[in-house]
Amino acid sequence: MKPTNPLRIAVQSNGRLSEPSREYLRSLGLQFNLNGRTLITPCENYKLDILHLRDDDIPEYVSREVADFGIVGENVVREKESRVRIVKRLGFGFCKLVIAVPEGSPIQSVNDLEGERIATTYPHVLAGFFRENRINAAIIPIEGSVEIAPSLNLADAICDLTQTGKTLKENHLVPLMTIMESEAVLIESMISRHEKLEFLKL
Length: 202
Ligand code: ATP
Ligand code: ZN
What we know:
alpha/beta; D-Maltodextrin-Binding Protein, domain 2; 2 domains; six-stranded mixed beta sheet; five-stranded mixed beta sheet; binds adenosine-5'-triphosphate; binds zinc ion
């Protein structure tokens, strides 16, 4: 019989989902030792390697079948529009993608966004929302520090992730509406492999 490669699961290396993702894997009975800053951690009691990656890269690794599974925010899966299957919602990493405006802004409703500039790290999800709502607005794609964009006059509004609303408040921004609710999800590649089915029974 041909020896098979271990399954691979990609998890966030360093961020909000890192610890809960590892906890989730441990809750399945998997044992592993995270030693230092290695990219790959082999499980001691299962034929599975854990890959530690930037969360934004996880859908790409899974859609290209380099990893069999991944744990990532549904928000990232949606934004990357990758060809992966969501296996289950994991009940952690809850957050919302909201449109927010500066306190006192004349923008008070979705329709007021017509012709305005909105900064975001989620340009695809936001573009979908604007399409559905027939709004023409300028999406300003940036990679971080979205909440300071209005005060620097880069944008009139923002579209960003929030959990408690604390960061928005600190930056004198008020949420106008939620465009997506999200939580961490287990994703899998589209190929079938009987080892994957075994893993899903854990
Ligand atoms: P990386 O360096 O891996 O790219 P990141 O800075 O993009 O990390 P984190 O801030 O660690 O990512 O967030 C990871 C995920 O946690 C988000 O994609 C989202 O699904 C979830 N999340 C939960 N609450 C929040 C929040 N308040 N702000 C941002 N993300 C949140
Ligand atoms: Zn990221």
